[in-house]
Specification:
about 100 residues; mainly beta; 7 strands
Length: about 100
């Protein structure tokens, strides 16, 4: 098993008027590996951590982990990064007992 980290994505500051800044990120397992789990991390900018929200973190298909986050701070961007936990696919012979 191994962990694949997706690109760090900027979580933009809120544009105001009650809207939050938002961003999506993903991490994909390499060929020959399958997704066994995953997650995401939101890092706050120079502000209160409560303003940064990981809204979704879930698998997409059998190879990709996807995440979505929002930021209600009007002055400070943050970051979002998804990660996938991947396992190599192998063919194993099954041993049967008589």
């Amino acid at each position: 098993m191994n962990i694949v980290y997706g690109q760090i994505v900027t979580l933009p500051a809120s544009p105001g008027n009650g809207y939050a800044g938002d961003a999506a990120a993903s991490a994909k397992c390499p060929a020959g590996q399958v997704l066994t789990g995953g997650g995401a991390e939101v890092k706050a900018g120079s502000s209160y951590v409560q303003r940064y929200n990981l809204a979704a973190s879930r698998p997409i298909g059998s190879e990709t982990w996807w995440a979505y986050a929002t930021n209600s701070d009007p002055n400070n961007p943050g970051t979002l990064q998804a990660f996938a936990i991947c396992a190599k696919v192998t063919n194993l012979d099954v041993v049967h007992t008589p």
